[in-house]
Write a structure and sequence with these properties.
The structure is a single chain. The protein is mainly alpha-helical. The chain folds into two domains: about 70 residues, Winged helix-like DNA-binding domain superfamily/Winged helix DNA-binding domain (Arc Repressor Mutant, subunit A, Orthogonal Bundle), CATH 1.10.10; about 60 residues, no CATH class. The chain contains five helices and two strands. A hairpin with a 5-residue loop joins strand 1 and strand 2. Helix 1 packs across helix 2, helix 1 packs across helix 3 and helix 1 packs antiparallel against helix 4. The protein starts with a helix and ends in an 8-residue tail after the last helix.
């Protein structure tokens, strides 16, 4: 598994919002500046996160972005899957995005990649935003 820049930025922005959870909204420019994320790129990321129900936005002077869920209910795995797709490095080892690949011709080799997938998935599925603040 290799995280895309978009996924890294999404995680940084969500951890930023998790730190503010229950304390008010954050302007996109503030999140952008605090985390070194290009503002226009962050806007695109937030559109995707908003569409999936992870953030909500309020317009106006007191507006901004906030988490739509409690940070303890958002795992790293679900965000990475939303942005990047499968956690498995090989399509035939993926649980949610399975696709046939040449590596499945060797069951022992495939089992190594499934084991790696399970270790990574377990860690990411059991790590919430709340644990990172």
């Amino acid at each position: 598994m290799r995280l895309s820049r978009k996924s890294e930025y999404a995680l940084l922005a969500l951890v930023d919002l998790a730190c503010r959870y229950g304390k008010g909204r954050a302007k996109i420019i503030e999140i952008s500046e605090r985390n070194g994320i290009p503002k226009k790129y962050l806007e695109q990321i937030f559109l995707q996160l908003k569409g999936a129900g992870y953030v909500r936005s309020i317009r106006g002077a007191s507006g901004g972005y906030e988490l739509a869920k409690n940070p303890s209910e958002i795992t790293l795995a679900e965000i990475i899957r939303l942005i990047d797709g499968p956690l498995a490095s090989v399509g035939s080892a993926s649980l949610y995005f399975f696709e046939h690949t040449p590596i499945e011709r060797n069951e022992k080799l495939l089992s190594v990649f499934k084991e790696i997938r399970d270790i990574v998935a377990n860690k990411l599925e059991n790590t919430t935003l709340n644990q990172l603040i």
